[in-house]
Amino acid sequence: MQVSKLYVGNLGYSVTSSELEQLFSTYGVVKQVNVIEGKGFAFVEMSSVAEAAKEGLDSTDFKGRNLKVDEARPQKDRGDRGDRGDRGGYRRY
After folding, report:
1. Which CATH number does the domain housing residue 15 bear?
2. Which of 1, 7, 11, 74 could form an SS bridge with 15, CB 3.0 to 4.6 Å?
3. Of all helices (H) and strands (E), which one includes residue 24?
4. Residue 85 lies in a domain
5. Does residue 51 sit within a domain?
6. Of 43, 49, 45, which Cα lies nearest the Cα of 2?
7. Is 38 exposed, middle or buried (0-12, 13-18, 19+ CB in 10 A)?
8. What is the average pLDDT value for the chain, to the nearest integer?
9. Residue 44 within any structural domain of the chain
């Protein structure tokens, strides 16, 4: 079984995981919803290819906002984030 992960953008900050799960479940089985709090976007993982959900929900109104639905891109490697020490995140050259 192939898994499809979608990026969902332009969400209101009050949108919950359960609301998105209910919305996307009309297009298939939702495995996981991860709302990024305070950022206005989420990731929805479905148990099958989610092309129908992408096409059916992209640019549609949800709670007064037009959704942006697209395939999620793989997460970039951010490197070693543990080497900040007390320098406030700046590199020492």
Report:
1. 3.30.70.330
2. 11
3. helix 17-24
4. no
5. yes
6. 49
7. exposed
8. 87
9. yes
